[in-house]
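Notebook entry, structure prediction.
Reason for the run: the old model in the group folder had no record of what sequence produced it. Starting over properly, with the input documented here first.
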Amino acid sequence: MLDLVAGVLAWAASPLVLWRPVGGALVISALALVSPAATPAASFGALQTARERRFPVALAVCGAGLAAHAIQGAWRFKGGISYGWWLALVAIGYGALLGWGAWARARQALIRSLRDRAHRAEAEQGRRVAEARMLERRRIAWEMHDVLAHRLSLLATFAGAMEYRPDSSPEQMARAAGVVRAGVHEALGELREVITLLRDDEPGFETRPQPVLADVPRLIEESTAAGAEVRLHDEVRDPEALPAAAARTAYRVVQEGLTNARKHATGRPVSVTMTGEPGTRLEIDVRNPLPPEGALPSVPGTGTGLVGLTERVRLAGGELDHRRADGGFRLHAWIPWPS
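New structure, fully documented this time:
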């Protein structure tokens, strides 16, 4: 009768182990003190405590359960094997429960740790994607400024000439209108190229070769055709050996220098000097006299061109400097040129 009551009470107290592992296991161990019918429930309590609590706490609970069974066996031992061997088997059982619970607890901790790392890695990946998108947007903005500012400033120069010289001959007006029309087509083509620069999945579209150092003379010819006086001093040795990224950056420096001169110092002569060779560095120097006091720029600007150009040159490993000196404006940049 005692075993039946103790067994019923032990299993009735088992749900308590799920919410209060230590307290529930100790209550069931107390029942195991008087009856072996509580042993299964006591084993469950020891295992649950080992899974949910730290090892010292679980060790103490298992020790209490072992002590309860030792007392129970001392006054209710039925024989079969010696008391010592029986107690050793009970100790081995509690040791196995303690090890099993500790392993399960460590596994749960590892899974939580890996899940947290996965969440952090996902958040870090999202941050990197956002930064990459921002860098690409900045890159597109630079390309649009570099390409369109130069082209539109040329168009503004020709349009201004047509406005202020209405007495020109029809042939001259037709020639200027043709230049404007061709410039608009060039600007639209370059704008489309910039927008689709990063869209590799667009079928049937091939981008034109990006401008390099060898294209600078053509850039000078465009400015000269627009009426500007530009002198080029090219002292670069073996320009084909310059890496493509550095050559493109050098082209943009010259382009920005000519664009600024056309905007802020219309009609003033511009001097472009390029020097360098493999194993040293490429230096670019663009100079033009300052406009008269109170003169307004022919084309309004945003003021961000030189900021973006400075960042572009810095990413290429070089430096860019721009300042007023000796009655003129100087744009100077250097870019490393590996051997």
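Summary: The chain has two domains: 2-111, 211-339.
The old model has been moved to the deprecated folder.
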